[in-house]
Model the fold of this input.
Amino acid sequence: MTPLRILMVTAEYTPLAKTGGLADMVAGLSTELANSGHDVRILIPRYRGVEAAGEPLNSLQLPPFATAISPVALDATHPPYELIRRSTGSGPETWQLDAPDFFSGNTIYGGGETEALCFALLSHAALKLCRLLDWAPHIVHCHDWHASLAPLLLNTCRLHEPLFRQSSSVLTIHNIGYQGIFPAPLADRLGLMEPGQLLSPDEPVPATLNFLRAGIASADALTTVSPTHASEVLTPEYGKGLDGLLRQRRNRLVGILNGVDYAHWNPASDPHLPRNYGIGQMDGKPACRTELRKRSGLDDAGGLPVFGMVSRLAAQKGIDLLLQALPPFLRDGACQAVVLGQGDPPYAEALRKLAADMPGRFAFVPAHSESIARLVFAGSDAFLVPSLYEPCGLTQMYALRYGSVPIVRDTGGLHDTVTHFDPHTGMGTGSVFRDADTGGLSWAISQVLDWYGEPAAWQRLRDNGMQADFSWAHQTPHYLALYRRLAGPGAQTS
Ligand code: ADP
Ligand code: GLC
Done:
């Protein structure tokens, strides 16, 4: 088979910039594709403020910048920028869009109207990079709204430029709740040939600029990050105003489950843990629980189960349910809990208050920290993911591998990765509740506490989870099949 040339266009990429699962997903898929012999290149903005301040960059050994193509003046509407290659050795070749006037805040997403210009520039730069390298991609794989103008631009370039004649676009919708919606007049400033194409005529809000909508309307193929979520987005409940358009284009839509890069997510070798452990040799896990209690300020409460959560603090993640369902269990002394998260200030405030009301029993760590996240996966006995919607979700898969039993709502990728445990048959990997209400989550928590009280059942349940295999080696062939279908016969054989 001919190796494919694939360009990933993304706002996040582990370890360069990460707020959530997008970063891990693009890195995991790209690494697996590169290891299988494909020519994979990544384009991501350079966030100078984040590089200077953020733990993810400080804590990782990054190679210095290698090659710069500079400066590129795109057109009259955009500032000059550089495209810089990091020397990565093996694996995907990573390029960064360095535009000093843009992406200069100390967070990845600055919000506001300038974000429209920043991410429009990312899509422009994707095509520019190909031209400068004289590199004809088979696939331009765009991720989320941040890269959603690239399919639109590609459709135009394909008509005029031989370099792109064989190129197809894939748009992966990681999170339909974030669409990149801006005031309509901005469309004229994005340097597009036909800004009108960007304006949404009807939904979700009339006559606004909607990046994700433009991407969905123009990409050659659409994916979501789990099969269940691919059906969900076709409904008004989950489609967030884009379900009508998605139904029109449903023959181009497929759901492919995310994978896990177990080279980086393995309790037997994770360098962030005080002691390593694995299935059949679990001695190290209690040491992780002790360390988690110490670092988060929980009491040393012996064998009392610790519930963990690592999450963006957003309505999507079911924080309201958690705030209602968890306190009675904490008050009764049935468990302890720790939440690591950053996000919406009202949620942070409510969690802070809960921690103040229940010192030693509930801890809230308001930070973004890769090392504490890993300690929560390893040191907790059960892991909470009560999401209202969850396109895939990675934390429940990490929790499974780290022997922390997931408590999840039956939605999206959570439905596809966790099955409710049955102590009679010994089958199942977690506790799954259906209705997004306090009763549902409380029931799921009680189930876990019951199983925890039965050591044989608990060991079986935990072993089932640790053995579950969601590696990228299983998922990547689905992307490859899609890419090859799009690339056509020329790319089928060598
Ligand atoms: P989403 O992408 O919707 O946030 P996922 O479950 O797909 O949800 O991925 C979340 C990723 O972000 C996981 O790798 C999780 O460990 C990480 N994460 C979330 N919050 C934090 C935090 N406060 N500190 C460190 N890592 C975090
Ligand atoms: C999104 C989704 C999450 C998914 C991640 C990576 O942020 O909320 O469910 O796992 O993207 O695809």
In short: Residues 54-62 have pLDDT under 50 and may be disordered. The radius of gyration is 23 Å. Residues 20-22, 24, 310-312, 340-342, 368-370, 373, 392-395 surround adenosine-5'-diphosphate (ligand 1) (CB under 6 Å). The chain has two domains: 5-259+473-491, 284-469.
